[in-house]
Amino acid sequence: MASLLGERLFEISGQGPPPPKDFFQLVITKNEVILTSWRISLRLECRGLPPKQQRTSHQDFQNDKTLQYEVGAVFGQRILDYTTALCQGKFDYLERLPDDIMLRIMYCLELKDVALLAQTSRRFKTLFSSEKFWEQTVRTCTGFNRDVEDIANAMGWKSTFLTFFHNSDDKKQQ
């Protein structure tokens, strides 16, 4: 299953905490953890400084408390935990599935279960909020026709579902 993974397992970048507010990039490959930082400063002695790069193996990262602290300080505990899990060989394959496959899985679930799934990660929340998801949801509703499609294209698919189909589902349950 690990053969399905690309060379880069994870990548994130962002600005570090104040006061220096340096810029950081964290890359986790199959073999190493790479933390690159760019110094952001108006001071003359800092101009033209090359980026600082720390490269370490997965095993060494797990033992390097200083580097772990730095990753946690810049990107937060959740990213540190995820980085540590990757270094231990614990891959989250569900998170790595392409969006079109994830959407197919979501279409097979009840809407209330998809709403619960959307609460588990940013990625699932983004997919749940996507027009693609709501278009498929509306298209499978009883009563979908060309008029509904025209309205959905004008209003948005999620708004159309909430306006036309969600209310009719509530009435059926009463």
TrEMBL record:
<dbReference type="Pfam" id="PF00646">
    <property type="entry name" value="F-box"/>
</dbReference>
<dbReference type="InterPro" id="IPR001810">
    <property type="entry name" value="F-box_dom"/>
</dbReference>
<dbReference type="InterPro" id="IPR036047">
    <property type="entry name" value="F-box-like_dom_sf"/>
</dbReference>
<protein>
    <recommendedName>
        <fullName>F-box domain-containing protein</fullName>
    </recommendedName>
</protein>
<feature type="domain" description="F-box">
    <location>
        <begin position="91"/>
        <end position="137"/>
    </location>
</feature>
